[in-house]
Amino acid sequence: MTTMNPATGAATPPLGGGAGRGVFLGAPSVIGVPEVFGVAELYGDSIPADLDAPTAARRRTGAGLDGLSIADDLDRTSKLAMMRTGELGSVHSWELVTAVDGPGTRLTVFLNGCPLRCLYCHNPDTLNMRDGEPVTARELLARVKRYVPVFRATKGGITLSGGEVLQQPAFAARVLRGAKEMGVHTAVDTSGFLGAAMSDEMLADTDLVLLDVKSGDPETYLKVTKRALAPTLDFGRRLAQSGLPGGATASRPVEVWVRFVLVPGLTDDERNVDLVADYTASLNEIRPGTVSRVEVLPFHQMGRDKWTALGRDYSLGDTQPPSVELTERVREQFRSRGLATF
Ligand code: SF4
Asked: Domain Radical SAM core: where (predicted)?
């Protein structure tokens, strides 16, 4: 067992599976969300060394697997067997963040593997499972346990992100279960495309889903992701039905934050945004309060270099971030449906 960083470096703020990370860094507490305490508010400007975690201050240069033991002494057969049972996962990186990825201070874990191919993906190095490092659920949960006091003090918890979390449902299920057994708040950041892979038991162990709705009309969704929109919409409706008599798939209601990445010339069409906003509002008609927050995430170019490094064609090289006016227009489209939007 050794401890190492992935050669690719890690999480520049991705947009999508791990949507918009960094965009809300330092954002104030908001109504409808459990009060957010920054790590800095708790500890002053610097993160104490004894937390021993890759932190937000380092996220633009990449947080790796520091502090986690890599199970690289397993042969291939054992690895595959353990991945099937969820004892082992393919992990890209982790970090300790605040005011992003859910309420409070979060231990965010990026898993490898994603079935989508978003044009704006800011972590293309998470797309293939084989590029991740093998980490056991037990190892990850030992790290979670270490931060339980921090989570309690900040009303934070663990967030599984990616890549696509539901590409490794057995591993995710184990981590979520273990976290709940410690009384830790759990969040899953997902495109919803593989929502059918999320079992009712997993849903019951999930407090919050960060649902990335990348477009409202199927053609734009296909253009953005190379995949179909319908599974995401179905998954969102299943979340809205959680906790309802008769339609419930989980024993208690799951909270949802909807994330929408605003890319000029790609997702900004007024009708496309209207469709996302209408859909989001419809979830609250199924179960009032399902979607407690909408995050409109302005496109940025911070992942461009990774595409080049990986030898992939990046088609958004000339795309500029949205203007303040455009971002406000889009946020207003959500707000006009009574949605708390940021
Ligand atoms: S390709 Fe996957 S990881 Fe990248 S933004 Fe899309 S959903 Fe997220």
From this structure: 100-337
From the number of C-beta atoms within 10 Å of its C-beta (0-12, 13-18, 19+), residue 83 rates as middle
> For residue 162, how far is its CA from the centre of ligand 1 (angstroms)?
7
117 lines ligand 1 (CB under 6 A): yes
| Pocket flag, ligand 1, residue 17 (CB < 6 Å) | yes
Atom of ligand 1 nearest to the CA of 115: 2
Are the C-beta atoms of residues 216 and 222 closer than 8 Å to each other?
no
Residue 98 pLDDT class (50, 70, 90 cuts): confident
Closest CA to 156 of 202, 187, 111, 188: 187
Ligand 1 close to Cβ of residue 14 (< 6 A): yes
Secondary structure of 68-134 in the HEC alphabet? CCECCCCCHHHHHHHHHHCCEEEEEEEEEEECCCCCCEEEEEEECCCCCCCCCCCCHHHCCHHHCEE
Span 145-160, pLDDT tens digits: 999 999 999 999 999 9
> Does the pLDDT of residue 252 top 60, yes or no?
yes
Identify residue 144 by its one-letter amino acid code: V
Packing angle of the helix pair 169-181, 137-146 (nearest 10 deg): 30
Q: What would the two tokens of residue 238 be? A: 């299943």
Cα 15 to ligand 1 centre (Å): 7
Tokens, residue 103: 């309420």
13 lines ligand 1 (CB under 6 A): no
Q: For the sheet containing 105-111, what is the strand order?
A: 133-136, 88-98, 105-111, 157-161, 185-190, 208-212, 255-262, 291-298
Q: How sure is the predictor about 55, in pLDDT bands with cuts at 50, 70 and 90?
A: low
* 16-53: burial string, b at 16+ Cβ within 10 Å, e else: bbbbbbbbbbeeeebeebbebbbbeeeeeeebeeeeeb
- Residue type for 334, please? F
Taking the CA of residue 126 as reference, the ligand 1 atom at the shortest distance is 3
Domains of the chain: 39-335 (3.20.20.70)
